Amino acid sequence: MSDRQTTTDIVKFLEKVSIFSGVAEDPKALGQIAQMMTRRGYETGDTIIQQGQPGSELFVLIKGQVAIYKKTPDGDSYKVVVLFAKDHPSIGEGGLIGGEVRSASIVCESPVECLVLNQDDFSSYCVAHSDQALPIVKKIALSLMARLNQTSHDLMLLHSALMKEIRSA
Description:
alpha+beta, Jelly Rolls, 4-stranded antiparallel beta sheet, globular
């Protein structure tokens, strides 16, 4: 996207972002969201989100690629996944709901541009346009539930492996 992008260009991009799929057919709703978003650039190696820090913003990757890192209890960091702008990912949606502590770090692997939506603007939008906001909030809830389910599954695998190790000792 160029520096002179219009709200229309942003709306066309947001139509492809999963979190906004519930309002993708509503250009007015996406236009209102687009007008609340600010554009932010980062350099290779910059940290957009730091694990453990509170967050109150949603990031939509529009250019570049980022890596998601998690820390182990021992403080070791490992790369979970790489996200590419061409896939229209959103990052940090939990921050729109309640200023949630970030569960991972997001580090730029190239120059990056994001559209950023902050919690205060989103909350105001939800109050003023609850019918339009409901599908977005539902998508956020489903995303958070999927992560919680994956975490539960991972914990059960770890428990099973630990019990197997204990029994064989």
